[in-house]
């Protein structure tokens, strides 16, 4: 089982194209757009998740090159998304089970009223200029992601707020007066969207020199050669690949489907690991009743696969 779980994936030339995208814009008709967008994705066999809100769009989708191209063209045909940018990577197998277009209050949930990245935001820094900025002794580097993401990779020297959700980030800032000790704040996240709101929030809080990595970790790993990189580890992604590395190659991490924590090959050999049921991160916080429920779910997944079906709960 262990060998099967951690078989090496093909490199960045996988069958499926993965497109990560977001765009902040006033989008008053977001509710009416949900059904046409869902239909467009379904017609092209595209899977993933897209969030629509009054403030714009956010999400990641996967499919054939032609299918992703069709969906992106459909989005850019809307006046609000004419300048939509996206980031591409590859997957050796379809990294999503289904297609979901959801309506939300925010496309990335910070929970702070009146934070508008279209009005105020930090200064974008291209990946080629990022190393110089975060190596500057006058710079404080902040990872705006959550603890399960930072656990498998960070930029060298970055502060890790160890948040469980992005909603906790504003409180962490308020409780850390040392953030005022240096003139520059450099922030980063997976694809850039969280930093749009995080830098806007920092500017609202009176921080003057606030910067963020344009395109996020994904763009940095795509553009910067490993031998020049200040990135350490892998980057967590929100699909079945679990992680990517330099060159956006698929990483070796798997996901514990009990606690949604990324796990390494070493953790799979732990006595606490049971596929889909537990790992060393969650064993002590779950009851035996919990684990039996997870075992039943695994049995249902195995049965569905045997019949050639996708198990929705998988």
TrEMBL record:
<dbReference type="InterPro" id="IPR036873">
    <property type="entry name" value="Rhodanese-like_dom_sf"/>
</dbReference>
<dbReference type="InterPro" id="IPR020936">
    <property type="entry name" value="TrhO"/>
</dbReference>
<dbReference type="InterPro" id="IPR001763">
    <property type="entry name" value="Rhodanese-like_dom"/>
</dbReference>
<dbReference type="InterPro" id="IPR040503">
    <property type="entry name" value="TRHO_N"/>
</dbReference>
<comment type="function">
    <text>Catalyzes oxygen-dependent 5-hydroxyuridine (ho5U) modification at position 34 in tRNAs.</text>
</comment>
<feature type="domain" description="Rhodanese">
    <location>
        <begin position="135"/>
        <end position="229"/>
    </location>
</feature>
<dbReference type="GO" id="GO:0016705">
    <property type="term" value="F:oxidoreductase activity, acting on paired donors, with incorporation or reduction of molecular oxygen"/>
</dbReference>
<keyword id="KW-0819">tRNA processing</keyword>
<dbReference type="GO" id="GO:0006400">
    <property type="term" value="P:tRNA modification"/>
</dbReference>
<protein>
    <recommendedName>
        <fullName>tRNA uridine(34) hydroxylase</fullName>
        <ecNumber>1.14.-.-</ecNumber>
    </recommendedName>
</protein>
<comment type="similarity">
    <text>Belongs to the TrhO family.</text>
</comment>
<keyword id="KW-0560">Oxidoreductase</keyword>
<dbReference type="Pfam" id="PF00581">
    <property type="entry name" value="Rhodanese"/>
</dbReference>
<dbReference type="Pfam" id="PF17773">
    <property type="entry name" value="UPF0176_N"/>
</dbReference>
